[in-house]
Amino acid sequence: MAQLRIALAQTNPVVGDIAGNADMLVEWTRRAAGRGAHLVVFPEMFLTGYPAEDLVLRSSFVEASITALSKTATRLADEGLGDLPVVVGYLDRADLAPRVGQPKGAPLDAVALLHEGRVVTKSAKHHLPNYGVFDEYRYFVRGDRLPIFRLHGVDVAVAVCEDLWQDGGPVSVVAEAGAGLLVVPNGSPYETNKDDVRLELCARRAREAGCALAYVNMVGGQDELVFDGDSLVVDASGELVARAPQFEEDLFVTDLELPEGTGEPGESRHDAHDGTVITVERVLLSAAPVEPYEPETPVVAERLDDLAEIYQALVLGVRDYVRKNGFRSVILGLSGGIDSALVATIAADAIGPERVHVVLMPSRYSSDHSITDAEELVRRQGVHSQMVPIADIVAAFEKEIELHGLAAENLQARVRGMLLMSLSNEHGHLVLTTGNKSELATGYSTLYGDSAGGFAPIKDVLKSVVWKLAEWRNAQPGRPPIPENSITKEPSAELRPDQRDTDSLPPYDVLDRLLRDYVEGDMGRDELVAAGHDPELVTKIIRLVDQAEYKRRQYPPGPKITPKNFGRDRRLPITTRWRERL
């Protein structure tokens, strides 16, 4: 057996910041060297950031990635880090003639091994995911190589993300080709109810491959996606050896005892058991094992509970959207209700209360407790606040145009949206909208009113979960940031006298169960009724959800936390005559 110390760089790259990501690679490699690592592995598409979407179809972007890879290899050697092998994801291109149906330029979701100032070997993701938030057949062509490099006597194989999730392909070849360690760079986003599927997957693939497996995942927010880290290492029997924390960057160092490799350098072709052939490329870096040393105690970070996971995902999503898009501060309307209270709290936890601005905009229908609850939150959290009563502004509009019913109610929301956007223009704040998923689903929001803004922190959070998150946050150490009355009082938009959400919607615990099945489960009417939902309510809610599609298409992006969010996941036509049989 031979010893190997691997460093998994659970890092947060920025899409498009190739130079900045390269700087990060050098810095984290230096840190890994300082920890005595023999190998450092970065996540999928690290140099370009992930997902880069249609940027990968630009030849200039692809060329910048390829150039940066070569320059980074040279730079590592120039800075005395060339002896430490680095596995890193980047964007490459395949040498394929253009053809109809092939992504422009034949881009590759690639991975490379850097050592002693050069790119030693490279390969690309073989299985291209085309479900959920992924549509990689649009962007990439398939890779067909499995690199195996001998490092200090150990044969190390490299596969990329989805190659681990699908049967066949490079991972299926590892067992017959022989390797002591399989490293897998990933860009795997967070979602609720994933349980521990990653650990189960890694354990199964390690047993199939007959070798230890190191899974490194990126961390951070990228538009709607949140990557949660949770990198891990399992041994050849699938037993967990070490695990990194969730939702934070970490240089995750683990010592392993691995079998010495026996294969000879060169290339061989293997049946990939998915109708394709994989070329195995063996490379020799160093044949002799390292001198025996005292291993570090492996770290297994404690996993968060379900509500803690969701909350941390929302905080990270807001923090990175603000930071990566160059905003210095955020602004939102604070009504005293639970939704805006939770959004303000998330924002304060994400970027600090000193960078959060809230505006209280009472109307003639606002209750006294709405104002006092909002003011109490401001006192507890120390965010910046200002009061802008809107009654006179609304009255000025009403002098010029005659509005009734819903149109008159929505005018109030649109005045508030206009004020927030004006303050955003004046001071450079990012406007945070405060609508939740239950409201978005049923159209219970005002277009160009409470839907106006730049980022929507809780757009993928059902109302019943909003309350749970508020209670969870208040239960954490320190003074509860959200006034209890904001949590316990009956929700109301306060756009007419004595208005309650239940005037238009069923109780949220009932509504949310139905929305999960219809929106996230894609059940039709008959399936919903068979699942136990009230037939009349099914008819009403389906109609509301379907009619609100045009509103949702114009809603700001927000962090995806559920298996199917409004945005990247659930994509329905606005113009359609299909209706469920009602």
Automatic annotation (TrEMBL):
Top-rank taxon of the source lineage equals Bacteria
HAMAP family (UniProt xref): NadE_glutamine_dep
Report residues binding L-glutamine.
131, 188, 194
- Which residues does the record give as ATP binding sites? 333-340, 434
Instruction: Outline the extent of the CN hydrolase domain.
Output: 4-258
Under catalytic activity, the entry for this protein gives: deamido-NAD(+) + L-glutamine + ATP + H2O = L-glutamate + AMP + diphosphate + NAD(+) + H(+)
- Lineage, broadest ranks: Bacteria, Bacillati, Actinomycetota, Actinomycetes, Streptosporangiales
Q: What is this protein called?
A: Glutamine-dependent NAD(+) synthetase
Q: Where does deamido-NAD(+) bind?
A: 410, 439, 551
What gene name is listed for this protein?
Answer: nadE
